[in-house]
Design a protein that fits this description.
Alpha-Beta Plaits, about 25% strand, 4-stranded antiparallel β-sheet, about 110 residues, globular, about 40% helix, alpha+beta, EC 5.1.3.32
């Protein structure tokens, strides 16, 4: 599994509504995410609106393309786009800034020592 971490910026005036929306994500959206390879998916929100997301997937491209083929994702992304700063024409699920992984404990523990 590939680990993916990403960053988005929620508009400060929309933070509370964003949190409410994610407290009860549509069941068909949850199922679509799971079915298209978004596993162990979490979102973390700083008080100023910095959003960090994390998920594991066999392929980021396949996970994004799989969601793009679902009807529910189009509806969800259209509703969520207004919550973010600087997305341009991109949807939130493709317009995020992917962060580079620079450390993973288990990878180093599993590495043979010299």
């Amino acid at each position: 599994m590939r680990r993916v971490c990403f960053q988005l910026q929620v508009k400060p005036e929309r933070i509370e509504e964003y949190k409410r929306r994610h407290a009860a994500v549509w069941p068909d959206m949850l199922r679509a995410l799971a079915d298209t390879g978004w596993h162990n998916y979490s979102l973390f929100l700083r008080p100023d609106g910095l959003l960090i997301g994390y998920f594991e997937t066999p392929s980021l491209r396949d996970a994004q393309e799989g969601m793009a083929r679902t009807e529910v994702n189009g509806r969800w992304q259209a509703e969520m786009a207004e919550f973010f700063v600087d997305l341009g024409d991109a949807a939130p699920d493709t317009g995020f800034l992917e962060l580079e992984e620079v450390f993973h404990l288990e990878d180093q523990l599993d590495r043979p020592t010299a």
